[in-house]
Design goal:
This protein has 210 residues and is α/β, with parallel strands linked by helices. The chain folds into 2 domains: 1-68 and 147-210, 3-Layer(aba) Sandwich (Rossmann fold), CATH 3.40.50.300; 81-145, no CATH class. The chain is 32% helix and 27% strand. It has helices spanning 44-51, 70-73, 88-96, 104-113, 129-141, 159-174, 186-192; strands at residues 4-15, 18-24, 27-29, 33-37, 59-64, 74-77, 147-151, 178-182, 195-200, 203-206. It has a 6-stranded mixed β-sheet with strand order 6-7-8-4-9-10, with helices on both faces. Strands 1, 2, 3 and 5 form a 4-stranded antiparallel β-sheet that branches. β1 (4-15) and β2 form a beta hairpin. α4 (104-113) packs across α5 (129-141). The radius of gyration is 17 Å and the shape is globular.
C-alpha cells in the first residue's frame, strides 16, 4: 500500500465571507499521480497554493512527510512570474540561484528537454503562449523534485506537446516522483491519474473516472 506523503486535515479557506474550501481531507500517495478537477473558481488552485505554502488556511492543516520540505523537494507550476524583459534561459538561471542546486548545463538540458532553445535571446514577453507554458514546465522540473505540483500544466500547448508531456509525467511517476495535477481536460485525467478528486462549491469528493 502506498504511503500518503502529503495530506490535509479539515482544511478550510475563506476570503472575506466567501468560503472557497470547506473541510477538505485529501491524501497524496507517494509515486502516484493525483488529479483534482472542478470548474473555474471551484478552489483547485487555492488548494494547491495552500499545499505549497503560498496561502495559509483559515482552519485545518497540511501535513507533509518529515523527509520532505517544500523549499527543497517541491517543483511547482502555479502562477509562475517571469521577468518580461529577460530570455527564457536568464529567467531560469535567476530562479536557480535561489537554491543554487543546478548548473548552467542543467538549465540548457531542461530547456532542450521541453523543446525550447536555451540560446534563443527572445525576451519572455515575446514568447508565444506555448513557449511560455513550456518554460513554466521547465522551471518546475529543472531541480528534479520529489513532488510536482502542477496547476493546468497543458494550457496553451498544441496536441503534439500535450502528448509529449503526458508521457514525461508518466515516466517521472515510474521513476518515483509524486505528482499533483489540476486539469480541465478529461483525457488528461483518464490518461495520467491514479486517483481523481472533484471540488464543487468548496466540497471535495472522489471522482470516478469514466
Amino acid at each position: 500500500m502506498n504511503k500518503a506523503i502529503i495530506y490535509t486535515k479539515n482544511l478550510s479557506k475563506k476570503f472575506n465571507n466567501n468560503e472557497v474550501l470547506n473541510n477538505i481531507n485529501i491524501s497524496f500517495n507517494k509515486e502516484k499521480i493525483t488529479g483534482i478537477i472542478g470548474y473555474n473558481g471551484s478552489g483547485k488552485t487555492v488548494l494547491l497554493k495552500i499545499i505549497v505554502g503560498l496561502y495559509k488556511p483559515t482552519s485545518g492543516e497540511v501535513v507533509i512527510d518529515d523527509k520532505l520540505t517544500i523549499y527543497d523537494d517541491f517543483g511547482v507550476l502555479i502562477d509562475t512570474g517571469f521577468i518580461e524583459y529577460e530570455s527564457g534561459f536568464k529567467n531560469l538561471k535567476l530562479i536557480s540561484l535561489l537554491k543554487n542546486k543546478i548548473k548552467d548545463k542543467d538549465i540548457y538540458d531542461i530547456m532542450k528537454f521541453v523543446k525550447l532553445d536555451p540560446f534563443n535571446k527572445t525576451k519572455y514577453k515575446n514568447y508565444s503562449t506555448g513557449m511560455k507554458q513550456k518554460l513554466k514546465i521547465a522551471q518546475a522540473l529543472m531541480e528534479k523534485p520529489k513532488v510536482l505540483v502542477l496547476d493546468e500544466p497543458f494550457n496553451g500547448l498544441d496536441k503534439e506537446s500535450v502528448l509529449y508531456f503526458r508521457k514525461v509525467l508518466l515516466d517521472l511517476k515510474e521513476k518515483g516522483t509524486t505528482i499533483i495535477i489540476t486539469s480541465h481536460y478529461e483525457e488528461d485525467i483518464k490518461t495520467l491519474c491514479d486517483y481523481v478528486y472533484e471540488i464543487n462549491k468548496g466540497e471535495l469528493t472522489l471522482y470516478e473516472k469514466k
